[in-house]
Amino acid sequence: MTGARDDLLAKIREHRAVVGVIGLGYVGLPLALRFSEAGFRVLGFDTDLDKIARLAAGRSYLRRFPDDAVRRARDAGFEPCAPGARFAEADALVVCVPTPLDAHREPDLSFVIGTVESFLPYLRRGQLVSLESTTWPGTTEEELRPRIEARGLAVGGDVFLCFSPEREDPGNPLSVTRALPKVLGGATAACREVGLALYGAAIDRMVPVSSTRAAEMTKLLENIHRAVNIGLVNEMKIICDRMGLDVHEIIRAAATKPFGFAPYTPGPGLGGHCIPVDPFYLTWKARQYGLNTRFIELAGEINHAMPEWVVGKVAAALNARRRAVNGAKILVLGLAYKKNVEDLRESPSLRLMALLAELGAEVDYSDPHVPAMPRVRNYRFEMKSVALTPEALARYDAVLLATDHDAFDYEAIARHARLIVDTRGRWLEPRANVVKA
Ligand SMILES: NC(=O)c1ccc[n+]([C@@H]2O[C@H](COP(=O)([O-])OP(=O)(O)OC[C@H]3O[C@@H](n4cnc5c(N)ncnc54)[C@H](O)[C@@H]3O)[C@@H](O)[C@H]2O)c1
To answer: Does ligand 1 lie within 6 Å of residue 51's CB atom?
Structure first.
C-alpha cells in the first residue's frame, strides 16, 4: 500500500486532485479561478447562498473578475456549492474565510473555527488542509492541528496541514494571482512538500518557510510594515501642514532616491479588511509573551485619528469662507477605502461622513464604483451616488476628496467645485479653491 502522501502527490502531479476552496471572497474566488485555469477540478464552498447561486449561473459578483472568467471556470468543472458532505470529495481544502477583530479589537477566529468544525466530519485520509486567512502566529498549530488529530488522523501521515497567506492587491490590474510569489509553511516536512506541490502547480513561484508559524508571521510583517509606514507619512502630513509644506511634494521628491526609501502615501485614514485589522492579531498574541507591540499601537493611533484631523481641516476651510459645518452641504468623493475598487470595508470615507453628519452637515457622496450605498457594519446611510455634473458640483459648500478614483473628472471638479478639501494630494499646484488635508 502506498502512503497517503505519495497518493496525493501523484493526484496533484496528474491534475486529478480536486481542490476545495472554502470562502469565495476577495481571496478565495481568484484562487478558485486560478486552480481551475491550471487544470484542476475546483469545488467552491461558501455559506453565502446568494454568492453560490450567482457564481453557479456563471456570473461574477466582483467587478475585477468578469463573468467570462467565472463562465470559463464553470465550463472547466468549477462547482460553487454550500458547505457540507461534498467536502469529502476535495483532496485539498483551502480555507479563505474572514479574520476580523471583535468588539474589543481582539482576534475573532470564529469564521476559521466554524469552517474547520464544518469540514471535520468529512475529513479523510489523503487530504491537504491549507489555511490562507491572515492570523496570529500559532493558529494553524494551536487551533487547527489539535482538532484534526482529535478525529484520529495523523498530521503529516494521514492528513497534510499548511499555512499559505494570500497577497491580493485589489484595484491593481498588474496583480495576477499566478504571478505573485506565495509563501508556505507546513506542519511537518511532508505537509510542506504536499502544499508546495499543490500551489506550485498553479503559482509561478513558491516561497517555502520553515513552519506554519513562520508563514503566519511573514504575512503579519508585510501588513504591519504597511500600517506603520502609512502611520509615519500620516504623521508627517500633519507636521508638514503645520509648517506650511505639502507632504506630497516632499514624498515625491524623496522617492527619487534610488535606494533605502520606499514611498507611502498619506490619506484620510486606513481602510480595507487587512491593514487596519491584521496588525492587532500580533498585538494580541504578543501579550501572551509579555510583549507590547509599540509601533503597531502608535501607527494605529495615528491612522485612526486621521478622519478627525481631516474633518478639522474641512471645518477650518469652511470657517475661512464664513461658513459653519452645521448646515453646510458637503459632497464626499470616493466611498471605497482604496482607489478603483468597490470595497467599503473599514473605509475612512464612512467615518468622515458620520463625523460630518454628527456636526450637522448635509452629506452626500459620489463614487462611480458604488452606485448605491449597501448596508455596512456600524453605519446606516441610505443614499445613492450623486452624478458629478457641473451643476451638482457647484451646489455644495465643500467637496471632500476622500478616495481618488481614476474615473473622476478632476478638471471638471476643479473648475466647478466652490471648495475642494483634498486628502490625496491630487492637486499639487496651489489653487484658490483647493485646501490640502
Ligand atoms: N481582501 C484582501 O485583499 C486580502 C488579502 C490578503 C489576505 N486576506 C485575508 O484573507 C481572508 C479572507 O478575506 P476576504 O477579503 O477574501 O474576505 P471576504 O469577506 O471577501 O470573503 C470571505 C468569504 O467567506 C465566506 N464564509 C464565511 N464563513 C464561512 C464558512 N464557515 N464556510 C464557508 N464560507 C464562509 C463569506 O461568505 C465570504 O464570501 C482574511 O483572513 C483576510 O485577512 C485578504
So the answer is: yes
- Residue carrying the nine cell digits 457594519: 377
Residue 358: what residue type? E
Record the pTM: 0.94
DSSP letters, 200-240, are HTT-S-EEE-SSHHHHHHHHHHHHHHHHHHHHHHHHHHHHH
Beta strands in 352-395 (DSSP E): 362-366
Q: How many residues does the chain have?
A: 437
Query: Is 274 a residue of the active site?
Result: yes
**Cα angle: 206, vertex 208, 210; to 5 degrees:** 170
Burial of 67 (0-12, 13-18, 19+ CB in 10 A): middle
* CA dist., res. 227 & res. 303, Å (int): 8
SS3 27: coil
Q: Ligand 1 atom 10: the closest Cα is on which residue?
A: 133
CB 279 within 8 A of CB 101: no
Residue 64 near residue 18, CB atoms below 8 Å: no
Q: Which residues pair with 183 in a beta bridge?
A: 207
Instruction: Please write the tens of the pLDDT for every residue from 373-388.
Output: 988 777 777 899 999 9
Give the position, in ligand 1's atom list, of the atom nearest the Cα of 135: 41
Q: How far apart are CA 136 and CA 279, in angstroms?
A: 9
Q: What dihedral angle (degrees, nearest 10) is formed by the CA atoms of 222, 228, 229, 234?
A: 150
Q: What angle separates helix 212-242 from helix 247-254, to the nearest 10 degrees?
A: 130
For 103-134, what is each residue's pLDDT tens digit?
A: 999 999 999 999 999 999 999 999 999 999 99
Q: Any bridge partners for residue 384, and if so which? A: 372
| 222 pocket-lining for ligand 1 (C-beta < 6 Å) | no
Q: Which H helix or E strand runs over 436?
A: strand 434-436
* Distance from the alpha carbon of residue 3 to the mean position of ligand 1, in angstroms: 33
